[in-house]
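Quick one: structure tokens for this chain, please?
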Amino acid sequence: MTKADIFHMQAALALARRGLGTTWPNPSVGCVIVANGRVAGRGRTATGGRPHAETVALAMAGEQAKGATAYVTLEPCCHWGRSPPCTDALIAAGIARVVVAATDPDPRVNGQGLAKLRNAGIAVETGLLQAEAQETLTGFVSRIVLGRPMVTLKLASTLDGRIATHAGESQWITGTPARRLSHAMRGRHDAIMVGVGTVLADDPDLTCRIPGFRPIPNVRIVADSHLRTPLTSRLLKTAADIPTWFLLREGTNLAREAAFADIGAKLIKIPGSPAGVDLTAAMAALGAAGLTRVMVEGGGQIAAALLRADLVDRIAWFHAPSVMGGDGWPAVQAFGTETLAHMPRFQRDCVTTIGDDMLSEFTRQRPCSPES
């Protein structure tokens, strides 16, 4: 691999990052086509998942693709879905060399795309900037391998971990720059999820309110076992225009279910649990629906339930430089940890100053397998 190879793959990765949160159920992939040392085409997976990055880049390159090198952040697909295989398009265009960052764990591909390219006489190289590519693909990989989306738990609290006063006042603990960054985080996820307690307390919009940041709105998800969300809430008032999904228990009031559906909400029935809905089953249902990246914004009860079920992959924790005291509402409610050995543990990835606040980001350390 040369410096030029690294440069062009970095460009492909930058393209892939731009699509995060908008391409589900497909991964966000970047592709750069280089002919005679010059970029002839570039593309990323389009909003909604199609067309694929290779198709977009090949259309831009045109005849220049013949004899060129294609840099792709994920192994090209080799199966028919709603669009033809990208391997066939690369072969038909006369691409001479393909450099791939990461292989595709989808059993319909998983090395078969690389083999098909090689069998067609195309030089194939893999593994360039693989770690960086895996970062953009983590949600897709989670859905394919674990059967559920990647879950980011976003918290905003005082230094002593409080998210509201004992009277329930919570707006705003963090400053404007931190809240704006929170909206950017929303923009890089497929969906935003809260518990019904947050809906009842705050009546949130759950939208990314940075103009032009997203071409499509986030899916909004509420874990609401008995559909207690008021019909006059902001979420239901806009459910006909913005995808709004409710996770509810079997056997909820049929008349209320019909009212929610008439407004435009999508209802997903999940087995019950003592805390409301079985969140392990809920995340499996969201994965089956195609979601790859879900950001959960609380409150403390759903945060505790997710941590107890070991469903949190990442934490983004904003701390304001203030102290509220023990009578404030905790960011995470009690969830039954009795020994230090049973605490969920995370690796700190980075700490960033955001205005007067501090953002700490963490990753759960676990093998990516169905048994984990």
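The longest strand covers residues 346-354.
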